[in-house]
Specification:
The complex is a heterodimer of chains A (618) and B (349).
Chain A lengths: L4 E4 L1 E9 L4 H14 L3 E7 L14 E9 L10 E6 L2 H7 L3 E10 L5 H6 L18 E5 L1 H8 L7 H5 L2 H12 L5 H11 L3 H20 L6 E4 L7 E7 H15 L4 E5 L6 H8 L6 E5 L3 H13 L3 E6 L1 H17 L3 E7 L16 H6 L9 E3 L5 H16 L2 E7 H5 L1 E5 L48 E3 L14 H16 L10 E3 L4 E8 L3 H13 L4 E6 L1 E3 L5 H5 L2 E8 L5 H9 L4 E4 L8 H13 L3
Parallel strand pairs in A: 1-8, 2-5, 5-6, 6-7, 10-11, 10-12, 12-13, 13-15, 14-15, 19-20, 19-22, 22-23
Antiparallel strand pairs in A: 2-4, 3-4, 9-16, 14-21, 18-20
Chain B lengths: L30 H11 L10 E5 L14 E4 L5 H11 L4 E7 H7 L1 H10 L4 E6 L34 H7 L4 E6 L3 H13 L4 E6 L11 H4 L1 H7 E3 L7 E2 L6 E6 L2 E6 L18 H8 L14 E8 L5 H16 L4 H6 L4 E3 L2
Parallel strand pairs in B: 1-2, 1-3, 3-4, 4-6, 5-6, 7-11
Antiparallel strand pairs in B: 5-11, 8-9, 9-10
Helix pairs in contact in B: 1-6, 3-4
Classes of the chains: A alpha/beta (618), B alpha/beta (349).
Chain lengths: 618, 349
């Protein structure tokens, strides 16, 4: 007889285990399944930099947090309702984020003497047994044993069988949340189609987990989370890196240009390369170069030749590309530099998120070298931001920096994807011949937006030489003339400033257009800021939220928006970067709120910070 | 062999490849001769000049593109090879020439040079070797002889010099050759061979810097000594040289090269090593003919000409093929199908 079900609105689950336990796969499968039932969804994969950190240790814990709801949600959740702990270390690392009364599903085989010792529990002190978890709903399950039992008829070593125990967990949670397992069945068939014994082990283990829920008395209720009231339309689930890759392909198609991506593997940007490398039938050329510098240099070569040139990297890689970015700026050719930011400086925190590189994007080059900067706010927004970065680069003949970060790069959410016909064409015109008004080709003759012509090799009559030395206005010849240099520096800056005419005016994300407090954010903090602002607005506070896509140049009305508020706060996952630029640009007393811990903001901490500022006497 | 290669009827002349820019190398610089040889060679390629691109890095030699009336880019230090790689990968039909130097191509850009060669893009690398940094006014370079006294090494340099052609062989270059600024005919022939080679051609050009390293190669280039210090290799011909009626030759004793006299009666021409550009192993020995001419001991002559040429797949062809095959297999990309993926759901109004 089936057990009763209860409908709930909102759940946060954290899958946590050893970095070899398959928690990322388990979490992403559950996320995918959740997306398909139409709930709103936000995920936060959090894993160590080591591929296989020492087994059983605290630094080796890999987690996947998943928030789903029948309401609109914007963050992966401040606290968890359910914690799956595959070993003692996973419990220790994540317990503090579990809400009081939350459910713990612990694999007892991960709590033996060795695991307890590795997780720094003092001798013989097993948290599952010592009563310390009394405030929670604790379920102790010997998952390894149960999974092994389910696979007893399969010819396979114990070690290999144990690799399927994450599927037991997944099956159990599918039971608990009343799910159909078809999406994972299909996934496993495709992944292990050529290894029938592995496929069978995974399927058996998952089914065993599902059946376990049905039979065991300890679990009396199953939960249902209904569809969220999202805007009508067709949805899919997507991560930021995939969305960014699709945005680049879409922009290439819409501009009728072949896409060239010269890049070097770096966390957390490599998945963009992986995704693009699969789509050669879109005339995508991916080039894994010998280093970061060659990645951008090859891309400059391709862009010079008339391709849509994109190079992808993270902070340390962008530092290496700096000189070549200056060359692209001097050549005035279109180029997109994608920086999926991570904790810095130096190697920093490769797998952790940080809004680390806004100042690098703004100022990190020799000489006067401004270039447009665009930032993505959510996983699916990476698509639009990529499209926008390409549009600006191509139409304004300039390198553009696109900032994403590790949090949205790996996080997933539902995406109401566009139809290709809804995407605007990007109208690129190559210079084909000398016009009647010209006696010879002038490579640095500009139009009213300060944009020079794109004349690619192979065009008869337009042979010309360009380079990194200062250009003479109009002719592009090498010039050391003092007045010319000052003029050219100003012209290049003006060209970037004029991009402001070609971007939308800034809109408030929410709140009144004047009042007590304005929160200004950029990039991946969108969800947390939006949730915190909503909470305060519901409580009757006057708070408004502006979230910037265009960081350079700023939308033309930003200053006038800002001046209508008494207080301005700028929350950032860094030591205060946008806040410096805003203070510099608008001479306002904007206040920073910073977190530099390699993890996203919680809604709660932002609510507290904003409230405190509102209460403070002016 | 240049003289037997079928040449397309030249419709352009050297003059077509000159620009209106004043050439600004020091008077007497070897670069002038190389520029002239290049301008004479380009019309022989049968390639429209708008399809020719000259890309350079930074250094004296890297001013080159400004003086050749084709498409050109004077880029940043060491990266011309990488820029050319991307251009060739995306525009395989272009004739691309990379102008670099011993500092640009072997020091700051050394990494890109070896990777360009192993990938075998069909481009031409002209490495002007003057064994000195000229543009920064006279520091030793990675090809400077050890113990060289320069501004940055007042007590002599400690670096062991690179052997550029051995390095190119080590990177599996498919075309390796050497020429010199002071032998314009040979230089033109080598430029033409470079152009006609399908794959990355690596041509080292000994170039005199008369300001900071004058006469570095004089022993190889001066009329008085050239015949006895240089070996001009020709395909299928025995390795012979020498001032007195080419009286000397190279013989292989096992894998050890040996200078022998053809006039003393012990050896005749039949005993000599016959040059074979396709012989990978012998080419490696030839690149190791690298004795320091300043040393007294018996010297192997310095070889000039084509050391090695092989047919090997070019990167850009492989890339184009992958794209072609992907389109054949999966059809031209459908953007809506891509964006939608396989699993979607509908939220009703």
């Amino acid at each position: 007889m089936s057990k009763p079900t209860q409908t709930i609105e909102d759940v946060v689950i954290k899958f946590a285990g050893d970095s070899g336990d398959g928690m990322q796969l388990t979490g992403s499968q559950f996320a995918n399944n959740t997306a398909l039932i139409g709930a709103d969804l936000s995920t936060f994969p959090d894993f160590p930099a080591e591929i296989r950190a020492p087994q059983g240790t605290l630094p080796g814990v890999s987690g996947y947090q998943l928030h789903f709801s029948s309401n609109r949600i914007y963050t992966p959740g401040d606290t968890c309702d359910v914690l799956v702990a595959m070993n003692a270390a996973a419990l220790k690392v994540n317990l503090k984020a579990l809400r009081t009364g939350g459910m713990i599903i612990a694999d007892t085989s991960g709590f033996d003497a060795k695991n307890l010792r590795l997780a720094n529990y003092s001798d013989g002190d097993n948290p599952l047994e010592n009563g310390s978890l009394q405030g929670f709903e604790l379920h102790k399950i010997d998952i390894s044993k149960l999974s092994r039992e389910a696979l007893k008829d399969i010819q396979m070593g114990t070690k290999e069988k144990d690799r399927a125990k994450n599927m037991f967990v997944l099956g159990f949670l599918y039971w608990l949340y009343n799910r159909d397992m078809a999406s994972t069945l299909q996934f496993l068939k495709e992944k292990f189609g050529k290894r029938p014994e592995i496929l069978e082990a995974n399927l058996h283990s998952m089914q065993a987990g599902y059946n376990y829920g049905d039979t065991v008395e300890a679990f009396s209720t199953r939960y249902i989370v209904n569809k969220a009231k999202l805007a009508p339309g067709r949805y899919r689930s997507i991560t930021g890196n995939t969305a960014l890759a699709y945005g680049l392909i879409a922009a290439a198609q819409k501009s009728n240009l072949p896409l060239f991506v010269g890049t070097y593997p770096i966390t957390p940007a490599s998945d963009i390369l992986h995704e693009l490398a699969r789509h050669k039938n879109f005339n995508v050329r991916t080039f894994q170069a010998e280093d970061e510098i060659a990645g951008i240099a090859a891309t400059i070569g391709a862009a010079y030749g008339g391709s849509l040139g994109v190079t992808t990297t993270s902070g340390p890689g962008m530092a290496l590309k700096t000189e070549a970015m200056g060359l692209a700026m001097m050549l005035e050719i279109p180029l997109v530099i994608v920086d999926v930011q991570r904790g810095g400086p130096s190697t920093g925190l490769p797998t952790k998120t940080e809004q680390s590189d806004l100042l690098q994007a703004y100022y990190g080059r020799n000489g006067e070298c401004p270039m447009p900067v665009v930032a993505a706010a959510t996983p699916c927004d990476c698509f639009d931001a990529a499209f926008e970065a390409v549009r600006i680069a191509l139409l304004h003949m300039t390198p553009v920096i696109l900032l994403s970060d590790g949090y949205i790069a790996n996080g997933a959410e539902p995406w109401r994807f566009p139809a290709s016909t809804d995407l605007p064409a990007i109208d690129v015109h190559f210079k084909k011949e000398i016009s009647e008004s010209e006696t010879s080709f002038q490579p640095y003759q500009r139009d009213e937006r300060g944009v020079r012509p794109w004349a690619v090799p192979g065009t008869k009559g337009l042979e010309h030489r360009i380079g990194g030395l200062e250009k003479e206005d109009i002719t592009g010849n090498v010039s050391y003339d003092p007045d010319n240099h000052q003029k050219m520096v100003k012209i290049r800056a003006e060209k970037v400033a004029l991009v402001a005419d070609d971007i939308p005016l800034q809109k408030l994300d929410s709140g009144p257009d004047q009042g007590e407090l304005l929160v200004i954010g950029w990039g991946s903090t969108f969800g947390a800021i939006k949730s915190a602002v909503q909470t305060l607005q519901s409580a009757g506070h006057s708070v408004s939220h502006v979230h910037l896509r265009h960081l350079r140049p700023f939308p033309k009305n930003l200053g006038s928006i800002i001046r209508k508020f008494k207080k301005v706060i700028v929350p950032e996952l860094n030591n205060g970067q946008l806040v410096k630029i805003l203070r510099d640009e608008f001479l306002i007393d904007a206040l920073p709120y910073n977190k530099i811990k390699g993890v996203p903001f919680n809604k709660g901490e932002l609510v507290d910070a904003f409230q405190k500022l509102m209460e403070a006497k002016a | 062999m240049p003289e037997t290669m079928p040449l397309p009827a030249p419709t352009l002349t050297a003059k077509d490849f000159q620009t209106d820019q004043e050439v600004r190398w020091c008077p007497g610089c070897g670069d002038y001769a190389i520029l002239a040889a290049m301008q004479k060679t380009l019309p022989q390629l049968g390639v429209p000049k708008e399809h020719i691109v000259v890309i350079s890095g930074i250094g004296c030699s890297s001013r080159f593109p400004y003086y050749v009336n084709t498409f050109g880019m004077h880029s940043i230090h060491g990266r011309a090879t990488a820029i050319a790689s991307g251009l060739k990968a995306s525009r395989p039909e272009l004739s691309i020439w990379i102008v670099t130097g011993d500092g640009d191509g072997l020091s700051i850009g050394g990494n890109h040079t070896i990777h360009l060669l192993r990938r075998n893009f069909d481009v031409n690398v002209m490495l002007f070797n003057n064994q000195i940094y000229g543009l920064t006014k006279g520091q030793y370079s990675p090809t400077s002889e050890a113990n060289k006294v320069t501004k940055s090494t007042p007590f002599g340099s400690l670096d062991h010099p690179f052997n550029p052609l051995a390095l190119a062989m080590g990177a599996d270059a498919s075309f390796v050759a050497r020429s010199m600024d002071r032998d314009p005919k040979h230089l033109q022939a080598m430029l033409l061979r470079s152009a006609n080679h399908k794959g990355a051609s690596f041509l080292e050009i000994y170039q005199n810097c008369n300001i900071f390293n004058d006469e570095a190669f004089a022993v190889f280039t001066d009329k008085g000594s050239k015949a006895d210090t240089t070996l001009f290799m020709e395909q299928g011909k025995p390795l012979r040289y020498g001032a007195e009626g080419r009286n000397k030759g190279i013989r292989l004793d096992g894998y050890k090269p040996q200078v022998v006299s053809l006039t003393e009666g012990n050896y005749n021409e039949d005993d000599l090593w016959v040059h074979d550009e396709q012989d990978f192993f012998k080419a490696q020995i030839l690149t190791r003919f690298f004795d320091n001419p300043a040393e007294e001991a018996e010297q192997l002559p310095r070889p000039f000409g084509v050391f090695y040429e092989s047919k090997r797949a070019c990167y850009e062809e492989g890339l184009a093929l992958q794209i072609e095959e992907a389109i054949e297999r999966r059809g031209l990309g459908n953007l809506d199908a891509l964006i939608q993926g396989r699993e979607t759901w509908e939220i009703a109004k």
